[in-house]
Amino acid sequence: MSEPCILEVLHSLDYGGAEVLAVRLAQRFSIKYPVAIALIDGRGPLEKHLDTQRIRTCVIGRKPGLDWGCVFRLRRMLMERMPAVIIAHQYTPFFYCSVARSLVKHFPIIYVEHGRFYPDHKKLRRFLFNRFLLRKNDVIVAVGHAVKRALVEKEGFPARRVSVIYNGVDSRRFDSCFAKRNDYRRLLGAMPDDVIVAHVARFDPLKDHLTAVKAMQDLRNSAIKLVLVGDGPTRTEVEATVRDMKLGDSVQVLGYREDIPEILMASDIFLLTSLNEGIPVTIIEAMMAGLPVVATEVGGVSEIVVNGETGLLVPPGNPDAIAKALRQLATDVDLRIRLGRAGRQRAEILFSEDRMFAEYDAIVSRFITPNAQ
Hints:
Elements: E1 6-12, H1 17-29, E2 35-42, E3 55-59, H2 68-81, E4 85-89, H3 91-102, E5 109-113, H4 124-133, E6 139-142, H5 145-153, E7 162-164, H6 172-175, H7 181-187, E8 195-200, H8 209-215, E9 224-229, H9 235-244, E10 251-255, H10 260-265, E11 269-272, H11 281-288, E12 293-296, H12 301-304, E13 311-314, H13 319-330, H14 333-350, H15 353-364
Parallel strand pairs: 1-2, 1-4, 2-3, 4-5, 5-6, 6-7, 8-9, 8-11, 9-10, 11-12, 12-13
Helix pairs in contact: 2-3, 8-13, 11-14
């Protein structure tokens, strides 16, 4: 096989929105071009979804803090692979790629920012440094307009250099799952009248699972049942809180799952309680599954969910508001159906995977053509 034409660089292949997007781009680009993935922190469960005959992966390795060893290992990789273009997901991979390529030759970078916490105060030194990292042919992609504003206002990147490409989801993954709805509801232990609320997110402080659990205190005697799907550092704390609040009959922690489409199709409402977000893939997946969404109004969430039309938006960290929104949807079947249908239509128009890939492919084609293999 020829040397890779596209090199994707990201933190790891642990389950998360940025990682899922990187894998889907690699899968689709590998049909046209040779592709490799470099992981600066480590591997993860998403690696098993890659065709290793077409997509090669390697771990660069990074120590806490500024790791010059990581820079030189990445530099050596660039010299060996000579990619036509680098796609760096998130700021840290972009930083290391920018420094490493300055020690070799010019490799164009497509920097994809998925959303994160940004500095509270603008710092001139950071503004100047970020503009120093950027080269003439580099492209910055923000996954939403809120993310673009943060890159411009908090990080000092020129607005004219930042394009917006919304995350996308393949609706076909959900179309065949509805027939399994009753089977999956039984697997979840749901009674016929139960209203299943799915919360799919990595267990991380930013996802604020504890607020979701606290909201269930007011709903413990109702038909509403919360299913938490995911894994991560705060899972143990959340499970302990569920036990301490004696909410075992109302809240299930399923852990990491591969069958997200089936779980969503078996559910009635989708919930996300994040403190900060870019354009969360899990909300788009829920809308593709035809679910009404209850979500915190942070980051780019309001670019996906139209309050009162495709879901209900609530303030972050407010369990009372979440409980009220869940109760409203649980007791109004017609409202659930109306919001869910509208959400599916909106997702198919704005957040399809085909549209997303076409926009990334248009950028990549500036640097590489299909026969350059």
